[in-house]
Design a protein that fits this description.
254 residues; alpha/beta; Rossmann fold; 8 helices
Amino acid sequence: MPFGQIEALPHQGVQIAFERIEGAEPTFVWLGGFKSDMAGTKAQALADWAARSGQAFVRFDYSGHGVSGGAFVDGSISRWLGDTLAVLDQLTTGPLVLVGSSMGGWLSLLAARARPERVAALLLIAPAADFTERLMWPGFSPAQQSKLMAEGRIELPSAYSSEPNVITREMIEDGRRHLIMDAPIAFSGPIRILQGGADPDVPPAHVTALVPLLRASNNVRLHMIMDGDHRLSRPEDIALLLETAADLRQTLAR
């Protein structure tokens, strides 16, 4: 189905674009990736599934992403986490299942820590926890690191867009204030993780290092799709995503 009514939530001086589908609890909330938006294949598939099955669902664009206001270069983990919490607090009620893709996986874990009474389960797709520090920063050459610190930004080619990725010093330094992979993660609800075995952006080893930190939950399942890439948007990947969402719904209903 196409988009329903796109609405806007004022937050921190910008308009956060969102779509909300009314339905049964828990509310599934889509948290997209770095420079991604809520019009992507996975988000649309979940919206279609929610509409068909009468499930409450919300998807939104962080500031500087998609059709939301603001500039991407002004963004940071703090800013995008703030956007996420505003959506959860102002647009949803009751228990939540956060569906986080890539950077959205990190934000989902942070949101679950910030709202433990609301978040009932997590569905993480190639979760890029701590990616600014563990994946991005060590991937820069010494010259790039020096340029970033001295000039405040660098531009890098993107595998997914003709426009370069602008990485700011603030993004790197702010990310260090939200690192979660240095200690066990307290979330105790069900967790499902879908990971591509051929993911060049979030390597499988990054996710397998995350799993032991989730031991507060006794219901964690990692599904490694050996030939899967980072996007996991092939028909078979989408089918698995929807199957996993439905399984979580049943798990929470028991």
